[in-house]
Fold this protein.
Amino acid sequence: MSEATLEAIVALCKRRGFIFPASEIYGGFRNTYDYGHYGVLLKNNVKNEWWRSMLQERDDIVALDSAIIQNPRVWEASGHLAGFTDPLVQCLGDCKQRFREDDLREEQLGAEDAEGEIRCPVCGGELSEPRQFNLMFETFVGPVQDESNKAYLRPETAQGIFINFKNVLQFSRKKPPFGIAQIGKSFRNEITPGNFIFRTFEFEQMEMEFFVPPADAGEWHEYWMEERLRWYSELGIRPEKLRLRAHGADELSHYSSATSDVEYDFPMGWSELEGIANRGDFDLTQHAEFSGDKLEYVDSGSGDRYVPHVVEPAAGVDRAMLSFMIDAYDTEEVEGRQRTVLRLHPRLAPVKVAVLPLVNKDGQPEKAREIYETLRELMPVEFDTGGSIGKRYRRQDEIGTPWGVTVDHQTMDDDTVTLRDRDSLEQVRLPTADLTEELTRRLKEPWTSPKLGAAA
Amino acid sequence: MSEATLEAIVALCKRRGFIFPASEIYGGFRNTYDYGHYGVLLKNNVKNEWWRSMLQERDDIVALDSAIIQNPRVWEASGHLAGFTDPLVQCLGDCKQRFREDDLREEQLGAEDAEGEIRCPVCGGELSEPRQFNLMFETFVGPVQDESNKAYLRPETAQGIFINFKNVLQFSRKKPPFGIAQIGKSFRNEITPGNFIFRTFEFEQMEMEFFVPPADAGEWHEYWMEERLRWYSELGIRPEKLRLRAHGADELSHYSSATSDVEYDFPMGWSELEGIANRGDFDLTQHAEFSGDKLEYVDSGSGDRYVPHVVEPAAGVDRAMLSFMIDAYDTEEVEGRQRTVLRLHPRLAPVKVAVLPLVNKDGQPEKAREIYETLRELMPVEFDTGGSIGKRYRRQDEIGTPWGVTVDHQTMDDDTVTLRDRDSLEQVRLPTADLTEELTRRLKEPWTSPKLGAAA
């Protein structure tokens, strides 16, 4: 068993077509990435599992997909226009580069709010006074580029949910406690993006705003912390690599009375996977004030009216995907050869089964193709005839395919195949006719990471 | 049987929570929309069906998800920076409004390229000389807003595919003919968006670039026209509402030697659902020139090298969804009452089954809940206890739920339920134990629109 370095993951992602640097033929574009075939499949599976946990397994949450470019008043009300900023300093010496002041203070003085002089980390030059830099990307809608046509790319999907609170209340027949869930891209003009897909300009969020009676907010906050931790561990992340960390009073956002981060033990240290905030009534109150609309819940029976409080689990798709890959990454020696394997939860694996003829003759490819065509009605399957069987297994191991079906000489005699397990490497022989049932059964079984067992 | 007006669809979309105007509490934001619960489910089903046809049912296409903000050189090479423009005129009279010159010519003179004077359609004022207005949204990446940091929101997903051609060739082991498919948002600063979700600033595309040996491009173009037409009609659009229209020589884009649009007979007339273009080697050649990289296919056996030609079926998710809803929309009188029903293909329907207790007592809700919890493991199901049974059926009809399971007095005696069909209104009684199998069977059956049968 072994742990992944970020370099090993980046290399695997490129080698197997999960993730490529964006605009690579043009020298790339800062810290931006494109997702290749297996990256798309894995990311879709992560999103589907989130939808499953939010929609299919419960009935108090509805879905939403709001626009990226909204009326700019939304960002006035939310506080982003005034306050979604980083402090920026520029080198007054030779290099003229820009840096986040808080990062430099932490690097050079040991704490963000420490007093003392900081210098340019590149050329040692003096630094300018800090100025506040807004992280929202600006654009203009319509043909005239003036203030009245300025608009913003959303920095979070959450506000799209708050501004639809009234519509959902009216047309979905929900009442508190209920949630609105959304998956979509957000954009932040980060000065220092980095760590592969951990922090990028554009990224995908999975956010859910859960509206509750004010008195119950604390309890629901606890509930969602537990739920979200469970989600990651049920999908295979080892519990010792996950923790909840409550924000200190100095870290809390202006809207939040309590926030805990789900953190993962990334190669660069414990870092945020997801923030779970008690946002109180801040957002609904702000939007009510700025829009002049009443954003409250009125109980049709008792006539009671109140502004619900909001508990928000806000996760990043790309980060979640990165943590699943890192946690699943493993290398081991098998019969004198090194193999790399992604021990992904079968529900997350981009491909569930590879169907491989042992040799490319004697009717084996045709038989394998036939099995492949049956199975692909039910699940994502690959048919692979390229190269030696060992090379094909190594490839499937690296993309995390949990099972391999091999068609060999014996198959042509008795219509049985071998079924190989990615993790245990156990091979069992079974009739071709039983494959569908066996694979469907295995896909539904609870699963724990074999890395977990090994560490125990 | 009846046909939908756009107004009827807009009203249904709001009433049932499919689609809301974006930023509605702030008076909206031009022609921008947010998708509510059933809108998200329907849109996801449309996208899943596209992925199914591109990935699961064949093995010559791989997936990609490229960034929205790429290196600006991409748009230089593609020709968008210089040529992705609309001609814009401004009123020199009182109102100072801006219009697309080509639209005004067509409205006032009957043809886009007609000679003659056009006037402001609002105040009758004189118009300025036209100037070319680029439809790409601009933004700045990083803290400095100067030319060197200018970037663009992609106006199409296609270019993200071309710039990854080399990566995919190298890491996915495909060779021509093969395709790269992508679903994602694109942005166009349209001067005259409109017709509900038909034309909006931000919209979702489903584009596939199919790379072929140059000599085969014409044949593949024909192939993809047929395939894409088939996709729409297999998902329930009536064939008489679909047509292929070849672009005239004056309509062709600079990159295309032949394009045909799949058009749907929308309430506002025949309009483009999807363009199927033979792009030749234009894009790969341009990116090779601008990047200095070789973008060609080299046959490892024969050593032959060539720049593949590209056939592109480029569809809009939002438009496809709109056409599915319009085509499915129907009203009829049943037992003296008017009902509205969305006759969606079951695979597209947001909810497959509604489980309804006839009355809210005598153990019926508990029994219905039990059935609901079994079924939701397999498909999207709703459990609905609110209001009279007739009211609940009308609601499910309007969101297009193909089947209703009703738990009644008899259920409590003999454990049978009634299964109602949305279209025929036929009700059959069957044992609860047989429900899963019956519904799974019905979901897999080929399906044609009952509106088709009625028209014949």
Summary: The first strand of chain A starts at residue 19 and ends at 21. Chain A has 15 helices and 23 strands.
